[in-house]
Amino acid sequence: MSSIDELQDKIGYRFHNTELLQQALSHSSYANERKHMGGSNERLEFLGDSVLSIVVSDYLYKNLNVPEGELTKMRASLVCEKSLYIFAKKIDLGEYLYLGKGEENTGGRERPSILADAFEAVIAAVYLDGGIEAAAKHILHFMPEDLQHAGKPAFRDFKTVLQEVVQKNPEEKVEYALIGEEGPDHNKRFVVEVRLNSQVIGRGKGRSKKEAEQLAAKEALELMGYETQ
After folding, report:
1. Of 26, 59, 118, 182, which sees the most CB atoms within 10 A?
2. 49 counts as catalytic
3. Are 197 and 131 in contact (CB under 8 A)?
4. Which residues are paired to 33 by β-bridges?
5. Is 133 among the catalytic positions?
């Protein structure tokens, strides 16, 4: 399976014109270095930003009965670079990017700004290829289930925090175990336990194994008395 096929499987959309997706994955460093005829993903990023904004605005308007100010805050939280970086990580978008040698050698595949921009470019590619409904379906896959918390900080790396807590006692060992999967393939939920020296200290359920691990670590920290909000 090619990397393009693999990414299409991850986002749940098959392109009629895969050149759009390839352009969405092409960073300016790659386009400049290779004199890539299709250009970089910067124009797609511009369009994707607008598509993302209208889809998220529509989603919040229809699902939350709160004042305009609250809607604005929630939208800002969901479309900021930090959130887009997290969404991109959920589909391992960095693995599929076309980067110039300089960006490749300086960690470009993990750089939040590059991943966030590429995520918006992919949205535009889906929109141009399949229309607004296809783009909305793709975007809404990443929206949080609990909208009431959408305006709060988008993400904390609970796994890292938990690891730092545990490392205070070198003999302690943290492990994550996938214990189940729920739901159909298009809406699957993964259930993960986090264990300290084989003892279960938290459990999480998410759309991906990584999200479930983060939520398991969050629960463990809360049970230990740490603030996670």
Report:
1. 118
2. yes
3. no
4. none
5. no
